[in-house]
Amino acid sequence: MQYRNLDRPQWHVYPEQGLLNDPNGLVYFKGKYHVYYQYNFRDTTHRFKAWGHRTSLDLLTWSEEDIPLVPSEWYDKDGCYSGGSFVKDDCLYLFYTGTVIEEDGSKSSYQCLATSTDGYHLVKQGPILPHPEGYTRHVRDPQVFQGTNGRYYMLLGAQTNDLRGTTLTYQSDDLHTWKLMGETVPSVSLDSYMWECPNLVRLDEYDYFIFSPQGLPKEAERFRNVFSTTYYAGRFDEETGCFTPFTPLEELDKGFDFYAPQVFKGPQDESIMFGWAGVPTPEEESAIPTIAKGWVHTLTAARLLKEKEKRLVALPVIPNQLKTLSEEKNSCVIISQCSGAIRIMPQKEEWRVVSEAWQLSYRDQTLTLERQNWYTKQPEYRVVYRGKIVELLITLDKNIGELYINDGNVVATFKFFTDKKNISINYI
Where is it chiefly localized (predicted)? Predict the structure, then answer.
């Protein structure tokens, strides 16, 4: 099949060339949204890691900026990996993990700081804390926030020496000197060998601990991807640095392509999230059709996070600025250039939404997403939702689709590729 929808998205963040993955250092700073991301500008593999940079005034139109962070010092010479940001006294603090490959082939990681007064030019400050005892070199992805007590906290994804995934909490009074408090969620032990990209989201009623545990056993309808992103609702104790879950483990996105999200505060103190619309198998990744155009992967659309009954709900920040193509039932619409949105208010007990490259089936109050895998050429499925559906919002942007069910109570992200320039959607 000759895929034709290989153009770059209209409102999603993507690389002009090379490979993009985890969102990094997300921040609203001096009147602009800054989205940094893991970036290999040399080719479409994961062999090299710098930070890319895009800015926006509205989370819809993005400007590519100069590359702000590249491997250059002894502590990050083999990769500038993921991390977060914090603004203090009109200065932007960017935290990241530097990787070093030693002469014997072993690897070391360093938690590093870079600062900026404008968001464009970063000054490296070097490592800011020693490697914790009892943990492998897999300690990474610093996220920093300020407590209600005025102190600063850092969460770090980690792996114990006995290969158990966890997260560590550090505390600081000045963002430079950090003290280890202990493990963030000591009451939880998952069958996982590494917890990546931890985030603590503090909403009105509860705190939410978001993380990406690697190695979770697959279940019939959960954790079906290579790696998944999950969360707990609970409470973070600023005195101990511990998070206490109040709920079972939940999956943050039910689609095929979502990983390593990061959450930051917007200008109205709203919580905004981006994720990497990726995490395929190596074989699937090497076969992604856009590689023929010299680029691969996008971020999700910006999503506004809210809470409902100890659950996170998410809606795209931008849907009202997009044209809703149809709210009719039993209809067919053509989405020009594979970019647009459609809102459906289902009335029937059974229905389908059929497109050239994917389809949704709703039967027995179960919504299933199906697409053709571009590598195997075989259909693959995800059970996205069980229950009554009142409203379904579908956004499409070239080769990324996102489903928002019942005002964002469940979200699913998926890549798709088709030989059509325009895409038809049939509600049957």
Answer: cytoplasm
